[in-house]
Known about the structure:
Elements: H1 2-6, H2 12-20, H3 26-48, H4 55-80, E1 89-92, E2 112-115, H5 119-148, H6 158-183, H7 201-217, H8 223-237, H9 243-248, H10 259-262
Antiparallel strand pairs: 1-2
Helix pairs in contact: 2-3, 3-4, 3-5, 4-5, 5-6, 5-7, 6-7, 7-8
Amino acid sequence: MKCIAEHVKPTEAVNVWLETIPIDDPGLNLSKCNLRTARLCHEAQVLFDSNSEDEWWIVKMLGVVKEAVLIDLQYQQWADSLPTPWRPRFFRKPGTTSAKIPHAEEACNGLPQYVYEDIYVAWASNSCRAARIHLHEVLLHCVSLIKSHPHAETSFDVEQTTIQSRTIISEMVSEICASTDFCLGEIDSVGNPAPTEYRMPLRGYLMIWIHWRAYVSAPEGSERKLWLRSRLEFVSNCMGVLAARAVMDRISKDPWDMRHISSR
């Protein structure tokens, strides 16, 4: 995930290990998806930083966009093929919320709440969602650069690609919101209120990048964005994980670019 956020090329050792290990495991298969995403983000960043925007640059940028679409399909296939113990279960949230901000309840009321077998399975699913959000933010930036290039002749529907990416980002943000009460230990695996000992700092720590990634991509001024911020504040103030406060103070103006934040 660090390589994805910082657009750093994965080491050769990681490449070899993930590509040669024969085990068919959901966690390992997700890591393989993330490896492709990290490679793509690095390749895209090289193009973003390039001083040359010639015909070869356009060809390479189009290749990044097409690869991003294929990677997203792999993420979706991963989610669709999860064994039963890895799948979220759904229930409707009661009409209350622990978020202490006006109208915060509206951010997730009416949505199904997700509960999981355990926190590690929940983290895997939500890290997948966060990675997909980041993938599509990078894809959208690629599309905007191609669209603004005076000599680009695209072989894909720019507007439709943009709509699809924004739709997927919105869905992933919604699903992260729906998972939050379980992930922070406020409800148990059957949806009942959990004892306070469930709210371990580890739970908050595991969700920082996921919440922050969703927060940055949530629509500006939306109830959902306010609610996600309240959850980061909860992790910082109530769970004692101060890194949650640090990321809120370093919000990027470009939702695809988190390098200067994640590296500090």
